[in-house]
């Protein structure tokens, strides 16, 4: 561009018009090229003419400047810009033709991607559900695997520890010291010899033994990793106990080797039908080493402040050998009743001696835990039931079972227990002894149910035999059955107060409460000890006893009534008075009645136990009292001699029949006794009493009058009836 005049003059005209036109045309073309060069896109985007003008001015200023000579460059610049324009146009045309294709391809790719994405979304929900389900299913496996990994890590730690222990043991001279003491003591004689004749150099040996024992004790006590490794499955439910202390374990090693050599291999001593061999062997070892352990090892433990009983620790280690042996043998003889029963018998004998003689605590693992395993325990119950029923069958098939084995010993035979009842209760007692040391209350309760079933079975058997004897209820066998029922009921009632069965009652209460098996009333009765575990059985037995007694009473009462027929027909109205007789004597018509009564009382007194006979005669007296009162006294009229004879027959003959069984038998004949009083009142007293009863306005005054003459049982109306039965009233209009 040309600059203006410095003095503010008008710009000078160009020297020739053509040159000016060329400059103008060049500028126009330059503007067009520059616009094309800068780019229409930029111009369009900016949308600002001022910025375009500034950009063009800046471009011309740069390329041409204020020097006119630079105008020579315009031709080349225009050509260059024209070429650039053509290239740009070609590029625009090329791009404008390709962009739709690319857009279409991009849209197609996007659509396909959308479809694939939708497919993935459709597959995502079931896949997520499947993965979630799989994770839930696999979680227990992961938990188990985690637990197993933890156990493996612990076992690896234990193995590492035991390897160190083994190396330490190799360096110890502990076993050599034991060898110098002739350990182990295989026989009791050897044990006594060691105790009496201590080896040469005993103080030095004992000092070394103490030192090594304490070191081994500290080695184990200082490590928390070593815990009891159960060698038996969880199904045996062994109690949690710490491992046997390390020095005792070492002392047990030679005995463990001997046990396995003799009783776990193919030796002739390993006989499955002879469990008593290995059981006796272990008991012998415990006894042989008890003195040494008490006298030599226990002081070391006490001095070290270790609260362990050496003898019990030693016994516990040996008992574990028994438990492993039983766990191995029992499955092999489980279904051989004879072998299994023999094994149980021997194990129970072993347990009894182990606890009673050697003081083995019930809190330690014992053979009863092995017998309590479900399969073994159910088999034990089955075998116990089978042999008990067989015993009952053979027992009741003999006639001798109804006789008491103490019949010739009066002091012992008070209960008159037949042999069958004695044997049966002994059987129940033996069963109790066999299961009372079971480790858990639920197992004991199952045995208790077995005992109750056996009692009910025996009751049914007795009932069946009794029904065969109902035609002769006074015979020996019937009475023997009644004595048996009474004895069983009495013993069960005594057992109900035993501490062992009270504990079972408490255990049963807890079980019933958990299972809602009883009503609140029944639970309350059990909790308050108003009822017992044997109540159901006792009630059934008492019902049977009462039924049998009632049959006997009814039978004797029928005989007495038959014998009293003549006595009922006695002419009470015409008998001579007492003053007309030199000596009062028993009515001859009463003899059959009294003889029958006497004979039956003597018979049943000999055949029934004391408690049963007491109930019998009291039931009989109650019926007899009412019979004489209603059928003889109220059915007749009495003159003075008749009333006196009745009183003599009753008070001097009937009542004394029962004086051997009670001090005042007349108190059991209240109706007869008081009727005799009324009938034998002297005339004056009878008249006065009659007047009082007739004129009494209040019941209390009548009662007082009756009590005054000794009447307490009979009612006022009964007394008035009796007064009217008297025929010796004077002719006074009364």
Can you tag this structure with a few keywords?
734 residues; mainly alpha; 27 helices; elongated; EXOC6PINT-1/Sec15/Tip20_C_dom2; coiled coil
Q: What distance lies between the first and last C-alpha atoms, to the nearest angstrom?
A: 182 Å
Task: Estimate percent helicity.
Answer: over 70%
Question: Whole-number radius of gyration?
Answer: 59 Å
CATH topology of the largest domain: Methane Monooxygenase Hydroxylase, Chain G, domain 1
How many distinct helices? Answer: 27
Structural class, by secondary structure, is mainly alpha
Main sheet? none
Corresponding CATH architecture of the largest domain? Up-down Bundle
Compressed to H and E, one letter per element, the order equals: HHHHHHHHHHHHHHHHHHHHHHHHHHH
Beta percentage is under 5%
Tally of extended strands?
0
What is the approximate shape? Answer: elongated
> Could you name the CATH class of the largest domain?
Mainly Alpha
Average pLDDT reading: 84
**Total number of distinct structural domains:** 4
Could you list the spans in which at least 5 consecutive residues all have pLDDT below 50? Answer: 1-46, 221-230
Protein name: RAD50-interacting protein 1
Organism: Cricetulus griseus (Chinese hamster)
GO biological process, one term: retrograde vesicle-mediated transport, Golgi to endoplasmic reticulum
Keywords: Coiled coil
């Amino acid at each position: 561009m040309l600059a203006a005049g410095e003095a503010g003059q008008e710009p000078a005209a160009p020297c020739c018009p053509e040159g000016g036109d060329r400059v103008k045309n060049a500028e126009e073309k330059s503007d067009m090229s520059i616009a094309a060069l800068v780019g229409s896109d930029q111009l369009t985007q900016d949308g600002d003419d001022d910025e375009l003008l500034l950009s063009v001015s800046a471009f011309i200023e740069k390329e041409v400047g204020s020097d006119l000579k630079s105008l020579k460059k315009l031709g080349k610049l225009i050509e260059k810009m024209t070429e650039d324009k053509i290239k740009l146009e070609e590029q625009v045309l090329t791009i404008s033709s390709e962009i739709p294709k690319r857009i279409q391809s991009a849209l197609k790719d996007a659509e396909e991607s959308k479809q694939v994405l939708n497919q993935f979304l459709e597959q995502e929900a079931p896949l997520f559900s499947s993965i979630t389900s799989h994770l839930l299913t696999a979680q227990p496996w992961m938990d188990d695997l985690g637990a197993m990994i933890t156990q493996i890590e612990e076992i690896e730690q234990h193995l590492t520890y035991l390897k160190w222990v083994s190396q330490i043991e190799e360096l110890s001279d502990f076993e050599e010291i034991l060898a110098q003491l002739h350990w182990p003591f295989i026989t009791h004689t050897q044990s006594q010899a060691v105790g009496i004749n201590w080896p040469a150099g005993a103080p030095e040996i004992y000092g070394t033994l103490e030192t090594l024992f304490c070191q081994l004790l500290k080695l184990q006590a200082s490590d928390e990793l070593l815990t009891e490794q159960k060698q038996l499955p969880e199904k045996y439910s062994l109690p949690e106990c710490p491992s046997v202390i390390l020095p005792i374990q070492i002392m047990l090693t030679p005995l463990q080797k001997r046990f396995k050599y003799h009783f776990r291999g193919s030796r002739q001593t390993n006989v499955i039908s002879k469990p008593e061999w290995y059981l006796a062997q272990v008991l012998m070892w415990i006894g042989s080493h008890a003195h040494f352990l008490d006298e030599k090892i226990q002081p070391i433990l006490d001095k070290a402040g270790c609260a362990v009983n050496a003898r019990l620790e030693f016994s516990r280690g040996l008992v574990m050998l028994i438990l492993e042996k039983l766990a191995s043998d029992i499955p092999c003889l489980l279904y051989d009743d004879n072998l299994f029963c023999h094994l149980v018998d021997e194990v129970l004998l072993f347990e009894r001696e182990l606890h009673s003689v050697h003081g083995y605590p019930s809190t330690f693992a014992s053979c009863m835990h092995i017998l309590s395993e479900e399969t073994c325990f159910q088999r034990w119950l089955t075998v116990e039931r089978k042999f008990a029923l067989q015993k009952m069958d053979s027992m009741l098939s003999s006639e001798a079972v109804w006789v008491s084995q103490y019949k010739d010993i009066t002091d012992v035979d008070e209960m008159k227990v037949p042999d069958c009842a004695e044997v049966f209760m002994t059987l129940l007692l033996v069963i109790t002894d066999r299961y009372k040391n079971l480790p858990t209350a639920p197992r004991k309760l199952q045995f208790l149910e077995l005992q109750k079933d056996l009692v009910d079975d025996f009751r049914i058997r007795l009932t069946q035999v009794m029904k065969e004897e109902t035609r002769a209820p006074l015979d020996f066998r019937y009475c023997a059955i009644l004595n048996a029922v009474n004895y069983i009921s009495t013993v069960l009632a005594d057992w109900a107060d035993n501490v062992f069965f009270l504990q079972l009652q408490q255990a049963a209460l807890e079980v019933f409460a958990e299972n809602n098996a009883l009503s609140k009333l029944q639970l309350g009765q059990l909790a308050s000890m108003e009822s017992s575990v044997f109540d159901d059985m006792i009630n059934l037995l008492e019902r049977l006893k009462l039924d049998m007694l009632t049959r006997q009473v009814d039978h004797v009462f029928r005989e007495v009534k038959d014998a009293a027929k003549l006595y009922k027909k006695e002419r009470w109205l015409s008998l001579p008075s007492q003053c007309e007789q030199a000596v009062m004597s028993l009515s001859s018509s009463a003899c059959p009645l009294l003889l029958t009564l006497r004979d039956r009382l003597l018979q049943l007194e000999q055949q029934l136990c004391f408690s049963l006979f007491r109930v019998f005669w009291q039931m009989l007296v109650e019926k007899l009292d009412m019979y004489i009162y209603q059928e003889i006294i109220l059915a007749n009229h009495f003159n003075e001699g008749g009333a006196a004879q009745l009183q003599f027959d009753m008070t001097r003959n009937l009542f004394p029949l029962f004086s051997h069984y009670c001090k005042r038998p007349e108190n059991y004949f209240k109706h007869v006794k008081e009727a005799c009083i009324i009938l034998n009142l002297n005339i004056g007293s009878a008249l006065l009493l009659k007047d009082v009863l007739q004129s009494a306005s209040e019941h209390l005054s009548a009662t007082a009058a009756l009590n005054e003459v000794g009447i307490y049982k009979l009612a006022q109306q009964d007394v008035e009836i009796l007064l009217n039965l008297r025929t010796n009233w004077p002719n006074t209009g009364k």
